[in-house]
Design a protein that fits this description.
single chain; mainly alpha
Length: 130
């Protein structure tokens, strides 16, 4: 048991430089230096986390946007002729809905209305002539 224990203990402190190579006494860090290093590390850590969150947000938004675009693109597989027919049908439906005509022939109703307006103008002209 008179032998001296050398080396490092498992989990214990380790020397950076052996005693024979060291030129001066060991230097201990001052409290200000320790606090400065700690503040620098924490600010770097916060910055890295912020950048990581921004990158994750960008990636997620791109993936969601791409998924929605693909879904809408696959959902609307119509030829040009089908689109034209749908537009024409919607125009007819909206015009007859605005006039409250339902499925009535629109051109016939327009002609009837114009004839009625012309008759009213003729009547007013005759009335004002006397």
């Amino acid at each position: 048991m008179s032998e001296r224990v050398t080396g490092a203990f498992p989990g214990g402190p380790r020397k950076r430089v052996t005693g024979k190579v060291r030129s001066g006494p060991p230097r201990l860090a001052r409290v200000e230096e320790i606090e400065e290093r700690r503040a620098t590390r924490s600010s770097h850590r916060r910055r890295r986390r912020r950048v990581k969150r921004a990158v994750y947000g960008l990636v997620v938004s791109l993936v969601v946007g791409g998924g929605v675009g693909v879904w809408l693109g696959l959902r609307s597989r119509a030829t040009l002729e089908e689109v034209r027919q749908e537009m024409a049908a919607s125009k007819r439906a909206s015009a007859s809905d605005l006039l409250g005509l339902g499925d009535v022939d629109l051109s016939g109703e327009i002609n009837r209305t114009l004839l009625e307006l012309w008759r009213m103008e003729d009547v007013e002209y005759l009335r004002n002539r006397r």
